[in-house]
Amino acid sequence: MTYAFGDTELAAQRLALLAETFAQSSRAFMGEAAQKGLRLAADLGCGPGYSTDLLAGTLEVAHTIGLDNSRSFLELARPTASERVSFRLHDITTGPFPSGPYDLLFSRFELTHLQHPEAVVELWGRQLDVGGRLLIEEVEYIETTHPVFTSYMEINQAMLTEQGNSLYIGPVLDAIPDPPSLKRSSSHVQTVPVPADRAAAMFHMNLGVWRHNDFVRRSFDPSELDDLERHLEAISSGGTAITPVEWGLRHIVMDRA
Fold it and tell me: 245: alpha, beta or left, given left = phi > 0 and alpha = psi -120 to 50?
C-alpha cells in the first residue's frame, strides 16, 4: 500500500495528532467489539505504532503485531516494542500475513488509501482463524460549514478520487456485500466532534505533504494553496470562534465463518 499523505517526518507528526484525537472512539469501539483473552491480534497499516499500542493496551491480547510496509514508520514504531507487542514489515494488501492466522485484525483509516477495498477486505478475512474478528474504523463523513475547511476537503477529495481512493470510504464499505469468508455482525456510525484548532492542525500537516502531489500541482493554483495553508495555520493557533468539526466514523465488525 501507499500512504496518500506520505510517510515523512511531517506525516508521522500528523499521525501522532490523529491518534490522540481519535483514541477515545477507537478504544470504545475495540472494547465493545472484541473479546478478551485473545491469542494473536494485528494492527493493519500500523504506521508509527500508535494504534498498535492502543490495541494492545485496550484488549487482553497475548501478542499484538503491527504490520506496515513503510520502513520509516516502522523505525519509529520499534522502540515501543515489548514482549507483547512487535512490528513486521508487510504490505497489508498481499497475503499471507506473517505469523497468522489471527484471532483479531484491526484497521483504522487504512481503506481510504487503498483501491478495490472489497477485495482487500476479502483478503483480510482469509488471514483470520475460524471464529476470528475483523474491526474496521473509517471516515463516513466530515461535517463543517467553515469555508477554509470545506475548501481543504474539496481539494483533498479531488486528489484521492484521481488516485482511485475515497475520503469518505465509510458508506462504500457499508454497501459492499460480505465476502465469502466473513459475516458482518454490526455496522454503525459514531460521531466525534473535533475542536476547530485541532482539525486545522491535522489539515495543515496533510496539506504540507500532499500539496506537492503531481495532480494537485497541475490542478490548483499555488497561490490558492498558499492561502489555504496560511488560513489553516492561523486557525490551528487557536483563539478563533469556530464550531467543532464533526467526524462520522463507520465502525464495522465482521466474523470469520
Answer: beta
- CA atoms within 13 A of residue 9's CA, in its CB half-sphere: 0
Q: Model confidence over 173-199: pLDDT tens digits? A: 999 999 999 999 999 999 999 999 999
Count the neighbouring beta carbons within 10 Å of the beta carbon of residue 231. 19
Are the CB atoms for 232 and 207 separated by under 8 Å? yes
Residues 129, 257: Cα–Cα separation, whole Å: 9
- Map grid coordinates 474478528 to a residue: 133
Q: Considering the entire predicted model, what is its pTM?
A: 0.93
Q: How far apart are CA 150 and CA 244, in angstroms?
A: 13
- CA dist., res. 202 & res. 182, Å (int): 34
Please count the other Cβ atoms lying within 10 Å of the Cβ belonging to residue 126: 16
Which triple of cell numbers denotes residue 122?
A: 476479502
Q: What is the pLDDT of residues 79-110, one digit of tens each?
A: 999 999 999 999 999 999 999 899 999 999 99
